[in-house]
Amino acid sequence: MQIRSKALPQSFSLRREIQSFIAPAEGRGETSHPLLIFSVVALLALFAIVEIDLHSAQLQAIGLLSQGTGIDPVFLSP
Predict the structure, then answer these.
(1) pLDDT tens digits, residue range 64-74?
(2) Considering only CA atoms, which of 31, 65, 32 is closest in space to residue 48?
(3) Are 65 and 56 in contact (CB under 8 A)?
């Protein structure tokens, strides 16, 4: 008597479910909604600004970020 594992059929079942979500969009050539693209770009820009702000001391140490010495004091806020 042979004992069969249930893991293999379940993995095939899971793969079929995932492919059913992916496959319909590939055939039709659909594009993403413009608002979704705008939101992703805005969030990535915000993330980049926060990361630069968090690591500004390290970026200054390696010379990628200036220390602000070349800014005219007229343009600085009071």
Answers:
(1) 877 666 667 77
(2) 65
(3) yes
